[in-house]
Specification:
Number of helices: 20
Structural class: mainly alpha
Strand content: under 5%
Number of strands: 0
Protein name: Ras-GEF domain-containing family member 1C isoform X4
Oligomer: single chain
Keywords: Guanine-nucleotide releasing factor
Radius of gyration: 26 Å
Length: about 475
């Protein structure tokens, strides 16, 4: 073969590249709210225009609060809500925002200024709608819902439409939380290792090619699985995965099940790697194994064309596992030119330079797409997480003067915001339940299974390639 196996598992080096971003997180100018500056910061400081970008936590919270004639940019709202959980728990942040709204708009007075409230009310509702839409898990605690009802109950007497809108907002929030509670965490419950047999009984294993023999169809079904799993990952999970104790906070933020869906998605990638290797190793004859190898090469190529880079890398990684790479006689029967091209695209050299170029191309296609088919961008997820990890490790959350390093979180919001845009694409392919069920439940080899090809065979054991 002459190829360096296992290259796809090499650690990337250097800082991540900055990709084009969606409008959701495009920095722009931000007008200052009509409040007094705090901590000696100059009035009118622009938090999204200019460098260095930093401010005290109190000032950042103040900029989040709308007034009768000010509303924060959408980019600022997303960036701050994403990063604020490193410094303050979402429940406490909401409590402070509601308190500031009540205090600044004098909502605790027995008689309200109706004209003033009618200018302020729609802005408050818009902020709460954006918050609950993008970060619904921030509202899992009953106390957070209580804060919402309290502040909205104070302005509702000025316009009955506020009460109706709040009811709709809470209904939508409830539906989102219910849907997220049905995530994919338990789908992979059938990942039970199987013992290796030269000719496994049909009751133990059915070959994938018997379920789906068309590479394009399988690539479409893999894309279905990927998008379904991505949909459950909240943007806050990327921050919470690397949360560290804030040296200026008395306690570390506590997140219950903070990265469940993110971890489940990584497990899916690992499962697909092992499934590919298992399917290749299962046939008894090298001619059949070569057919499976070529099938997966075609599937990987279709994944690349679709923009499904995560499945593409999983397939390449599975084919680079030692039980597959040491099948020398099998590989001798494979037309490997197409596989070498795919390996080149996903080569880790230069911090995955080739892949990042292809990803930018897919991202550009998505921005100008006229169909859901062209909008699909499924990034190599493990590399995305590593990029965010390196960004987090390479830049401090706070500056020496205690200010929040907001510039860092703008860069974080760019990366996470683009991912959020990609994960919301509706899959245009018709789902085939029999194929997706097989992908989720087919037994796979494990490294510690008796007789597994993942283990080096004893010297007196007949090799796979003898047949």
């Amino acid at each position: 073969m002459g190829r360096a196996r296992g290259r796809a598992r090499r650690e990337p080096t250097g800082m991540p590249r900055t990709l084009n971003t969606s409008d959701m997180v495009t920095p722009g100018s931000l007008g200052p709210p009509h409040t007094e500056p705090t901590d000696g910061e100059p009035a009118g400081q622009s938090l999204l225009d200019g460098a260095p970008l930093s401010a005290s936590l109190d000032t950042l919270i103040q900029h989040l609060v709308p007034t009768t004639d000010y509303y924060p940019e959408k980019a600022y709202i997303f960036t701050f809500l994403l990063s604020s959980r490193l410094f303050i728990e979402p429940q406490e942040l909401l409590a402070r925002v509601c308190h500031l709204c009540i205090e600044q708009q004098q909502l605790d007075q027995p008689v309200l200024d109706k004209a003033r409230v009618q200018k302020f009310g729609p802005k408050l509702l818009q902020l709460l709608a954006e918050w609950t839409e993008t970060f619904p898990r921030d509202f899992q605690e009953e106390s957070t819902i209580g804060h919402l009802k309290d502040v909205m109950g104070r302005i509702a007497p000025c316009d009955e439409a506020y009460r109706k809108r709040m009811h709709q907002l809470l209904q939508a929030l409830h539906q989102k939380l219910a849907a997220q509670g049905q995530g994919p965490e338990g789908v992979l419950g059938a990942d039970k290792p199987i013992s290796y047999r030269t000719k496994p009984p049909a009751s133990i294993h059915r070959e994938l090619l018997g379920i789906c023999s068309d590479p394009y169809t399988l690539a479409q079904q893999l894309t279905h699985v990927e998008l379904e799993r991505l949909r459950h990952i909240g943007p806050e999970e990327f921050v919470q995965a690397f949360v560290n104790k804030d040296p200026l906070a008395s306690t570390k933020p506590c997140f219950s099940e903070k990265t469940t869906n993110l971890e489940a998605y990584v497990k899916w990638f690992n499962r697909l790697c092992y499934l590919v290797a298992t399917e290749i190793c299962m046939p008894a004859k090298k001619k059949q194994r070569a057919q499976v190898v070529e099938f997966f090469i075609d599937v990987a190529r279709e994944c690349f064309n679709i923009g499904n880079f995560n499945s593409l890398m999983a397939i390449i990684s599975g084919m680079n596992m030692s039980p597959v790479s040491r099948l020398k006689k099998t590989w001798a029967k494979v037309k490997t030119a197409k596989f070498f091209i795919l390996e080149h695209q996903m080569d880790p050299t230069g911090n995955f330079c080739n892949y990042r170029t292809a990803l930018r191309g897919a991202a550009h296609r998505s921005l100008t797409a006229h169909s859901s088919r062209e909008k699909i961008v499924i990034p190599f997820f493990s590399l995305l997480i590593k990029d965010i990890y390196f960004l987090n490790e390479g830049c401090a959350n706070r500056l020496p003067n205690g200010h929040v390093n907001f510039e860092k979180f703008l860069e974080l919001a760019k990366q996470v915001g683009e991912f959020i845009t990609w994960k919301q694409v509706e899959c245009p392919f018709e789902q085939d339940p029999s194929i997706t069920h097989y992908l989720h439940t087919a037994p796979i080899f494990s490294e510690d299974a008796p007789g597994s090809p993942w283990q080096d065979p004893p010297s007196n054991q007949v090799s796979l390639e003898a047949s």
